[in-house]
Amino acid sequence: MPTVAPLDLDGHCIAAVFLDGVPHFALADGTIHRLDHGHQWTQVHDGLLCASVEHSGKTLLTGGEDGKVCRSGGSTEVEVLHEAPRKWITSVAAGPQGVLAFGSGRTAFARLANGTIKPFEHPRSVEGLAFAPKGLRFGVARYNGVTLHFPGTEGKPVEMEWAGAHTGVTFSPNGDFLVTTMQENALHGWKLSDGRHMRMTGYPTKVKSFSWSNKGRWLASSGAPAAIVWPFQGKDGPMGKPPLELGTRGNTMVTAVAFHPSEEILAIGYADGMVLAVRVADQKEILLKREGKGPISTMNWDKDERRLAFGTETGDCGVIDIAG
């Protein structure tokens, strides 16, 4: 049976992650807590808005209301990578080879490995950021679409247009597809080779969490009373294909999803704090955590693939060991 090691904190958990095998919990008040031979914590920001784990899996990038972009590791030392007083850092993304991107207002910034910072202006506010899995390219979710930038070159950006407010962005693991969350209750996608559109609608609420399976065959999403899992096995992605609905529990909404690192098993977090694991192949369910004090807001697996860190909107955090 899975076991749960709880950590009761006070506030909205933005990111629950493992850094070098140590569970870390970044809260909206700007503190980062860790369970490393006891509970320790560090004040990193005066109000934290966004976070992203770097590719090494050893450090966490965060951005806050204080205009700082910071890198935190397993120790109490915090590296300030950028500081812009009176600016809110609303999105941050980790890229390859030490490159990162962050957004503030209408500007997206790329910070190259040598510390050089390149700004990219947009007509409307930068809402979400993500790096492509191949090559130094990142996408900026914005009003009416996504802009693709190539910070290592002087090449022109590529504009992917679709009417409406796009709030988050993700690339498929093979780099063939680009998908955004929207202000309306929908996802939108593009096939990057030819720009074809993919409309993924029918959600009762906004999609705030998504996760790709390890080989990119499936894209799971929150925003419904089940995890909505879209098929991306074919060359045209989910166009003309219905999604799977995993982990239905009456009218209890799914608020967070996280695919297992190597298996097609999905961790599903709910508005009442419960967490289930569901296998895609046969939809078999395993209870990982019973109801708690608030909606699950974030979940991430460790590299050993046996522990799941979770956080909630009310600070009800912890680590689930699926091996017991």
From TrEMBL:
InterPro entries (alphabetical): Apc4-like_WD40_dom (IPR024977), Quinoprotein_ADH-like_sf (IPR011047), WD40/YVTN_repeat-like_dom_sf (IPR015943), WD40_rpt (IPR001680)
One Pfam family it belongs to: ANAPC4_WD40
SMART domains, sorted: WD40
Record-annotated Anaphase-promoting complex subunit 4-like WD40 domain positions: 258-322
Protein name: Anaphase-promoting complex subunit 4-like WD40 domain-containing protein
